[in-house]
Amino acid sequence: xKIAIFGRITDNTDYQSLFxxxxxxxxxxxxxxxxxxxxxxxxxxxPTLLExxxxxxxxxxxxxxxxxxxxxxxxxxxxxxAVRFTGPLxxxxxxxxxxxxxxxASASKTMVVKAxxxxxxxxxxxxxxxxIAVESNPPGLFGKNNFGINDIxxxxxxxxxxxxxxxxxxxxxxxxxxxxxxxxxTPTGSTAYNLSAGxxxxxxxxxxxxxxxxxxxxxxxxxxxxxxxWTVAFEIESRSGEAMVALDTRTEKVKTMTAxxxxxxxxxxxxxxxxxxxxxxxxxxSLMWGSDNRN
Length: 295
Hints:
295 residues; alpha+beta; Rossmann fold; 2 domains; 6-stranded parallel β-sheet; 6 helices; globular
């Protein structure tokens, strides 16, 4: 068996956890390939960690074909990046949290050996997560990697203006949203920006998307939940003639009246969940959902 290791140095990265991880791989004689950019970061931060190893590295998606799993060492942003990197290969991704929240991770860094044991002994489940794909006119928004696991956000580019986002569902007019912007969220992203803007929590595999306005200039506008197989289209107006469009962690500035269409992607992200984690436990623990001193 061969695994790919994708990662990023964070403020919470520590030598001992990394040493335990790589020692485990070597002790079990597990072949691995290391993301080249991450390998350079590790070599610079911890010169002795990979010393003497005959490293195999990868830089492109196509080099992951022979790998069975992708182990992601970092925070939630690193998991988002790993999803984008693996793309339509849909390799199972197991996140080990070296970040702050670690909402998308399978285990904390102190549990890395236990998590790897469960992975190798098939004591895990796969959570398939819906992705959204972006099309635009003029074309080319977000290039070839025009898909995301969390959300797409249309936001004003200047702090002293409102924008208008005309929104259509399967070609039928829904509403013109006046305000700071609009979020279209997947179930995975429903606990991110969508939640902060007052949107609903959507459970994975519910087959839904959420449209949530950001600071709407109307008391009657509320979030709506729609089937994820529908096509959502946007047209944007602003006084400055520009707006910001964000897809997960990437942001592009667009001219107003740019037409944007969002569809469910043809493939899904596959996140590994080991026995020590569950969606509901993660919801309560990481987000303190339902937290009450009376309980």
